[in-house]
Predict the structure.
Amino acid sequence: MAASPDTLIVGLDVGSSKIAMVAAERDGEGKLSYVNGSYRLSYGVRNGVVVDIADVAACIEGALSDLEGRTGRRISSACVAVGGPHVQGQYTRGKMAPMGRDIGDEDVARAIGDARASLSLPENREIIHEIPRAYLVDGQPGVHDPHGMAGYELEVEVHYATGLSTTISNLAKCVGQARLTPDMLVAAPLASAEAVRPADERACVVVADIGAETTGLAIYADGAAWSSAVLPVGGADITRDIVSQLKLPWAGAEDLKLRYGQCTPGDDEYELVEMPPSAGFDGFVPRAELTAVIRRRAAALAQAVAVPLHEARGAGLDPEALILTGGSADLLGLDELLARACELPVSRGVPRGIRGLPAGLERPIFATAAGLVLWYAHYAPYGDGFASNRRFAPLPGLVAGVKKLFRVVLP
């Protein structure tokens, strides 16, 4: 992508069930306006990970051709989400000694470099993001930006989102074979959160992106990503149980879930619901039976999401709200199950921050693609190599191999 502020920015979300692309224009003031988008069913992705390069490349190229046809513009690059349970987060601490003088860019970079040096990663994993989440100056916590402060010791806590090198490489191959350059890779949980988290940076919030086969989880505190991970649970687990319990083909079970699915019994629990044509036969099923199947699996999903939240509380964090997004977020009653399991108020988040986004895209299922556009707009390289709103100098060693792909070091 060119560095000019009016560049067309494209987000590409390669999910287990769908390929979604969103294109937006950035004006001279840095504001984003929707241009167009495309959506294709996804083949060749399991649990958020590429299992068939040819199939995935073909799906991406199909979505790209649709988008180019609608915009009338040639698109050569995109900001791409990295998903799947291989995406995990961890944190380390680093420090350096300014010896009483004012803290500058180099001091912050050296403290972060010290944290990176202490990071223990297997050879088959690589850093996707390196995000300072907290600073301490002379042991004093709660410092948001240490620049200009005098101190004898600077400490930093850094959150790392990492992924399997080969899995990331396979995703990059698919994008390349679809005649796109992956200008930037973004961990999917952070991309989704970028689109839906509140503007109030003081809030401590959790964003759960519930997809078909995975759930991305991002916890934010004081405006910074405190942790991120991808859990191996999603809406397809519910469909799988309907297939097993009601002896239906996959398409019939999915249609039944989308038409009549709910996690809690309602006034209509004794109703008989008609089998969809995709079931392959005529008949009815008690809504109460369908609800019971869905509820069991949805409750297991809620418990899986609750575990990292309980761990965060044990580390001293106090989450205030849980925001749901992703294709499975609209399942009726799922918010109630999650509210009980996580002991938090729950709301559904839709993409924001892009002007003119049509109603069809203002849905949780498109949060990741929209979030990628927002992420690129906020953190992409400009002429000096990094976004103009960065608060300190870039760190070395983040560009190499697939490694030529841009890995973001955030302020």
